[in-house]
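Morning - nickel (II) ion inputs below, output right after.
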Amino acid sequence: MSREHCSLTKVYRFSAGHRLHNKKFTPEENWEIFGKCTNELGHGHDYSVEVKVSGVICPETGMVINLGELNDLMNGIIEELDHKRLDIEVPFFRENQPSGELIVKYIWTRLEPKINKLDGAKLTHLKLWETPKNYFEYFENSQPQGVRRHGR
Ligand code: NI
């Protein structure tokens, strides 16, 4: 089993609007919990998302993942979000808060199965910058690689 572990990270950008608001809460509760982010007409962010993919280096291409293939996969997901009012136009965020936490999880949920179809490469980490001062990270624990040996 190879001990090699190489990763590459590519940055994608999109702009989107959102409003944090829960219909179950009173207007006062929404304001208390979400502050100005519950402003009725929403507000926007220029997001950037760092996509980290890991694997072994293919000896024929010298690559962990073909960046063109990663772009194809990510561009479809970015299109779903870019220049959208997330809580109105994207079905998932009509039912779930368009918070940074859930946006980064949403991107993972959309991207991970697509990457898994490619040979070898695995999505290992996502980082979503919402402002220059805050970001959200998401990953899921993967199965340990290789076979665990018992005894000696
Ligand atoms: Ni916001």
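Note: Residues 18, 37, 43, 45 surround nickel (II) ion (CB under 6 Å).

O.
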